[in-house]
Specification:
Six copies of one chain form a homohexamer. Chain A has four helices and five strands. Chain A is α+β, with helices and mostly antiparallel strands. In chain A, helix 2 (63-78) crosses helix 4 (97-115).
Chain lengths: 137, 137, 137, 137, 137, 137
Amino acid sequence: MIFITRRERFNAAHRLFKPEYSDEQNLEIFGKCSNPNWHGHNYTLFVTVKGYVNPETGFLVNLKDLSALIEIHILEKLDHRNINLEVDFMAGKLVSTENLAIGIWNELKEPISEMGAILHCIKIYETENNFAEYFGD
Amino acid sequence: MIFITRRERFNAAHRLFKPEYSDEQNLEIFGKCSNPNWHGHNYTLFVTVKGYVNPETGFLVNLKDLSALIEIHILEKLDHRNINLEVDFMAGKLVSTENLAIGIWNELKEPISEMGAILHCIKIYETENNFAEYFGD
Amino acid sequence: MIFITRRERFNAAHRLFKPEYSDEQNLEIFGKCSNPNWHGHNYTLFVTVKGYVNPETGFLVNLKDLSALIEIHILEKLDHRNINLEVDFMAGKLVSTENLAIGIWNELKEPISEMGAILHCIKIYETENNFAEYFGD
Amino acid sequence: MIFITRRERFNAAHRLFKPEYSDEQNLEIFGKCSNPNWHGHNYTLFVTVKGYVNPETGFLVNLKDLSALIEIHILEKLDHRNINLEVDFMAGKLVSTENLAIGIWNELKEPISEMGAILHCIKIYETENNFAEYFGD
Amino acid sequence: MIFITRRERFNAAHRLFKPEYSDEQNLEIFGKCSNPNWHGHNYTLFVTVKGYVNPETGFLVNLKDLSALIEIHILEKLDHRNINLEVDFMAGKLVSTENLAIGIWNELKEPISEMGAILHCIKIYETENNFAEYFGD
Amino acid sequence: MIFITRRERFNAAHRLFKPEYSDEQNLEIFGKCSNPNWHGHNYTLFVTVKGYVNPETGFLVNLKDLSALIEIHILEKLDHRNINLEVDFMAGKLVSTENLAIGIWNELKEPISEMGAILHCIKIYETENNFAEYFGD
C-alpha cells in the first residue's frame, strides 16, 4: 500500500461566530476571529490518498486527475469565497479549521473512491503555525 | 550602512472593486478578486530599515522595538480586519498589494525615523507566488 | 476524532556529552556537538493533540489556549536558555533531539489532558534536515 | 519508541513511459512527463527510522551515520543521474514517485536494520505539490 | 515606482558540457553536472517588474496577465523539457543558471515592455542553495 | 553583470552583553539575549557575488568553489562554536546579527576577489523573522 499527497491552495474569507450570540458574546468566545466584517486566510490543503500501484502506469492515481477532482469539488467552491456565506457544505457550521477539514473529507471521500483510491487524510493549514488533520471516524 | 529586516504576518479580508462600477463590471476587471462577499489572505510583511550600527548595542535598532512599532502602527489596524471597511489608511483606495505596500510605507516612515533608522523597503506577500516591494518615491 | 497541531519555536544552547568522559572521549562519540563551549539551535516544535470537536465552539481546543499552555510549560523554560544547565526536566539527561522530544511529552501530557484533549505527538526539528517524533510509549 | 527523520536531496532526470508503446501513446498516458528527451527534478527524500533510545548516547541512531548510509546506498546512485538509464534498482520499472519510494525502501531496509533501527517510512517529494509515502507492505 | 514579483516553477533536464570536449574533459571541468545521460531540477523563477500604479486598477500590471505572459514565453518552452536539446533561446549555450537567467531576461524584456511595465530582475533558483539574478546590462 | 548567491548554514551559541556591565544591566539592555549561560541559533547565510560570466564555463564562479571557500573561511570558524568565545574575527565585539554580517563580509571580501568575483552582499538570518544585510561601506 502506497500513500500519495497532493497540495492545493485557496484564499477565502471567514468568521468564527454563533448567530444566536451577540457580537460581544462572540468576541468573548472567539476573540478577533469573530470580527463581524470578516477576515481571511491563504489556506493550504493536503489531500492524501492510499491504495496500490497500478502496474500499467506506475501510479496509484494520476496526480493530474486528483488535482482536477479537488479543483471541481473543493477549490471552485472555496477559492476567493466567503466560507460562511457561500460554501454549501459549510452552511450552518462553525467555520473552524477542524470543521473545514471534516467538511472537505465528506466532499472528497466518494469521488476519490470512484477514482480507485481511498481517501486517507485531509490536512489543512490556516496559518503557518496552525493545522488540522482528519482521517475519518 | 547596514540593513535589518523584520518579518511580520497578518490575516485579513479584502475585495478588489471600484464602487462606481456594477458587480458585473468589477468581475470583468478584477476577476474573482472582486467577490462582493470578500475573500482573504495570510499577508506576510517584511519591513527593512537601514542606518549605522550603534556601537553601544551592536544594533542598528532593537528588533523588539521595531516589531512593537509595526504592531502598533500596522498589525493592530490590519490583523483580522476587513481592509476595505476598517483600515483608516486604506480608506477609499483600491486594496491591491501595490497600494497596501505604499500605504504601509506611509504609516511607518515617520515612526521609524523617530527610532533613529531610515525605512528602506516595504515588501508584502499576498500569496506564495505574488509580492510587491516599495522603496519610496 | 480530529488532530490539531500548533507550531512553536525556541532558541537555545546545548552540548552533547557525558560528564564521566573527558572532552576527548566526548569528541570521539559526539563529534563537534560535544563542544565544551556549547553551540545552539533554532528549535521548531510541533505539538499535536487529538479528540472530538466541541459543537459549541467548533474547536477541539482553542489554539490560543494550547499556545499559552506550551508557553508556560515549555517555552518559558527552554527559550533563550542553556538546555544542559537551566532546564529542570532535562537535568542529568543527554540533550539529544530524541530526549528533548520525550522530555517535552512528559511535561505536556498532563496539562493537555486537563484541557480536555489527548497529546498525540511531539515533533521537534533541530535543523531543517533532522527531526524527532514521539507518540508516547 | 522514538522516530527520527533525516532529510536528503538529489537532482535527477527521468521520463515516464512504457518501452512497448510509441511516443504518441506514451504522451497520451503520461502527458508531458513522457518527453523522450527527459526532464528532471530536485527530489527531496525523508527517511524515518524507529526504535529505542540508546541510553549511552541519547540517540536512536547517530544521524551522521544514517546520513552516510543514505549517501552510499541512495544518493551515490541517484544524484545527478538519469533514473531510467543509470539506477540499478529502478531498471525496467516505471519511474513514478510511487515506484521510487518503494525502490528506495527496498535498498535501505536491510542496511538500516543492521544499524540497529527499523525503517519506518520513505517519503519523497517530486515537486512542492506532490509527494509519496511508503511504509512497507 | 513600485516593484511586483511573480513566482513560477518549471521542471527540466540539462547537462553542463562543451561539445568540443570529451566526456572526461567535461567531467573534470563541470563535475557530475556533466553527466552525458543528463540530470534535472525543479527550477523556481522570480520575475520582477517595475513601474507606476495604474490609478484605475490599483495595479502596476495584472499578475494574471504577467503569469500568462511568462507561461507563453518561458514555461511552454522550458517546462518538462531538455534545456540543451529543446529550448530555442538556449541553443548552443552552456546551460548554467547564469546563462538561463540572461536567456529568460532576453525573452521577457520586450513582451513585458509591451504590457506597460519594465523588467527589473530575473531570479532563478536551481536548488534551495543556489540562485542567480540578472538585472540587465 | 550577473549576481550569484550561495546559501550555507551554521549552528552556534552566543550571548549579547557588554563585559563592563553587570548581568542585571545587560538584562535590562539586551533582554533574554544576555543570558550568561548562552543561547543559540541555526544561522542561515546567503553570500552574493557579482561579476561577468566566463564564456568558457558559463559560470561567474563555480559554486562548488564558492561553497568550499565559505566553508574554510567562515563555517569552520562558526559552525558548532560559541561565537563570543571562539571566533577570532568576532573577538571583543557585540555578537549582534549586524556585527556578524559585517564580520563575515570582512573575512570573505579578499578571498572572493582572488576568485575573480566581487562580494556584493552578506545576508544572515538569525531566526525566520530577523535578518541583516551588509553591502560594504
